[in-house]
């Protein structure tokens, strides 16, 4: 395994800090399914939080088993300055993806004889024999669709392996379009490296879908993890590989201080027998493992046909649970999943349709009041109790605001930079992807990356200013140890870190209080009583 023992411990500690700061709560379910030793591949999905998915998985795996995780990561990430540095530090394994190497080439392309022939592409001003190769990649603008090349016939004609299914891709080709080309990628060395590491008993993690996204359903799983497990069992018959499905269930993944539940399913054991079957018929065996892991992943995640349905299910779960005590996050995930399974099977039933419409109407009324469903649980119709609680919380909020104000002001440039730059990265990611809906999957990761760069720089600047002012105006006691500039600088830096951390913890409590005020204010309004009563009846 790459890295010294000290660097491993240092990176583990670093990841723990990131996870503890970004997430308010990270829970686990089924953690006993994680093997303590031996060849292990942890397959994660959905890949909804880009680089943070890797961080939270590493954190939990280390917390549960004490093992270090080596992630399979795109080589494009390694080529980024900051991300690449962290990737190498973590001991991640680089894999080149053809879509990351797509380059615009001269000419335009179109179908030769669509719809009679959906595979033959012809070009104008193209040089297919120079730039294209069999098993290379042909891409359309804005990453609308990519297709593998099956045959290069001439400079102006080639065939793709499969028909293009996306309507936008077909429209572009019918009209004539620019195109991109990527060479064939040979990852045999990567796979052999993974086989050897699994034989050595390492734990490797991989995102089953490849790239990150913000959809409510899985993207098609890539077969890489199945090939790795089967290939290792074939190359080393004495090695059993455990494939552990890991569902990443987030509550607002792009938001600071959000919550997450990692659920681990029962391991799929790949033995020497599976390795022999893989050598005899690779495609059939890989398809079999892919089908098995897909079913296993559905059992540890929440799969919704669309965002609207997910909102309805979440509201229905809260209504169903009301007014019981606080439900642990892992149980919330299980309830959501069970409701989604039931809805998927019976969504055409008139009673279910009526229930869906009622819940949607209920959500709309909540939006009109500017409330979320869980805030109504704090509602009370006792006017005196409500007035007292509102006054007490308002005073407490003002006190907390005063305490957190210095740290908030000092750290505000980082907040602004995180917001502005992460939104810019969101727009860029959305423009490059054909699978993202809003591009929210990149927001959380970029907020963390920006803070990791800007915060130390800001602390350094403030500390230098503080050191200069302290010496010039003799602001500190005349102690001998304070005669050293490096000591003054270190004290300033430490004070700044603790000030902003205190503001962060105090501000979190303040935000909780602030969110609770609106239901209390509405509790004093007679117009809201009828709606809340109907909520309790529902």
From TrEMBL:
The keyword Disulfide bond does not apply. GO terms for molecular function: glycerol-3-phosphate O-acyltransferase activity; glycerone-phosphate O-acyltransferase activity. The keyword Transmembrane applies. SMART domains: PlsC. It comes from the Eukaryota. Residues 41-251 form the Phospholipid/glycerol acyltransferase domain. InterPro entries: GPAT/DAPAT, Plipid/glycerol_acylTrfase. GO terms for biological process: phospholipid biosynthetic process. The chain crosses the membrane at residues 397-421, 442-462, 482-504. This is Unnamed protein product. It comes from Ambrosiozyma monospora.
């Amino acid at each position: 395994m790459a890295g010294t023992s000290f660097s491993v411990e240092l990176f583990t500690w670093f990841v723990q800090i990131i996870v503890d700061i970004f997430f308010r709560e990270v829970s686990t379910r089924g953690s006993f399914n994680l093997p303590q030793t031996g060849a292990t591949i942890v397959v994660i999905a959905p890949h909804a939080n880009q680089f943070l998915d890797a961080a939270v998985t590493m954190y939990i795996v280390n917390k549960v088993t004490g093992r270090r995780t080596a992630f399979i990561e795109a080589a494009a990430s390694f080529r980024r300055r900051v991300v690449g540095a962290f990737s190498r530090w973590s001991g991640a394994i680089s894999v080149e993806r053809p879509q990351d190497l797509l380059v615009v080439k001269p000419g335009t392309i179109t179908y030769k004889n669509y719809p009679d022939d959906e595979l033959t592409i012809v070009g104008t001003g193209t040089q297919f024999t120079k730039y294209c190769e069999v098993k290379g990649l042909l891409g359309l603008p804005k990453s609308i669709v990519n297709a593998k090349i099956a045959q290069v016939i001439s400079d102006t004609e080639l065939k793709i392996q499969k028909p293009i299914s996306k309507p936008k891709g077909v429209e572009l080709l019918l009209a004539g379009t620019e195109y991109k080309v990527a060479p064939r990628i040979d990852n045999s060395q990567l796979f052999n490296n993974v086989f050897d590491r699994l034989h050595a008993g390492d734990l490797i993690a991989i995102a089953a879908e490849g790239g990150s996204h913000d959809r409510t359903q899985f993207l098609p799983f890539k077969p890489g993890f199945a090939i790795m497990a089967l290939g290792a069992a074939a190359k080393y018959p004495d090695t059993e590989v455990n494939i552990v499905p890991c569902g990443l269930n987030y509550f607002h993944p792009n938001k600071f201080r959000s919550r997450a539940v990692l659920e681990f399913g029962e391991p799929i054991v790949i033995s020497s027998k599976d390795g022999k079957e893989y050598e005899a018929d690779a495609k059939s065996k890989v398809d079999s493992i892919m089908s098995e892991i897909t079913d296993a992943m559905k059992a540890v995640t929440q799969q919704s046909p669309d965002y609207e349905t997910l909102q309805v299910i979440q509201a229905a779960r809260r209504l169903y649970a009301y007014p019981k005590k606080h439900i642990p996050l892992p149980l919330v995930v299980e309830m959501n999943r069970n409701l989604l399974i039931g809805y998927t099977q019976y969504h055409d039933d008139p009673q279910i349709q009526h229930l869906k419409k009622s819940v949607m109407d209920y959500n709309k009324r909540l939006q009109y009041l500017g409330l979320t469903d869980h805030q109504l649980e704090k509602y009370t119709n006792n006017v005196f109790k409500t007035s007292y609680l509102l006054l007490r919380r308002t005073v407490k909020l003002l006190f907390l605001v005063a305490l957190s104000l210095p740290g908030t002001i000092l750290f505000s440039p980082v907040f602004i930079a995180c917001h502005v730059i992460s939104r810019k990265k969101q727009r860029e990611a959305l423009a490059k992807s054909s699978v993202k809906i809003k591009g929210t999957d990149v927001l959380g990761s970029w907020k963390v990356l920006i803070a990791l760069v800007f915060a130390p720089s800001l602390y350094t600047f403030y500390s230098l200013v503080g050191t200069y002012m302290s010496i010039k105006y003799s602001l500190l006691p005349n102690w001998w140890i304070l005669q050293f500039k490096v000591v003054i600088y270190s004290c300033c830096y430490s004070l700044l870190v603790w000030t902003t951390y205190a503001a962060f913890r105090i501000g979190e409590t303040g935000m909780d209080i602030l969110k609770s005020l609106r239901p209390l204010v509405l509790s004093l309004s007679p117009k809201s009583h009828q709606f809340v009563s109907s909520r309790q009846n529902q």
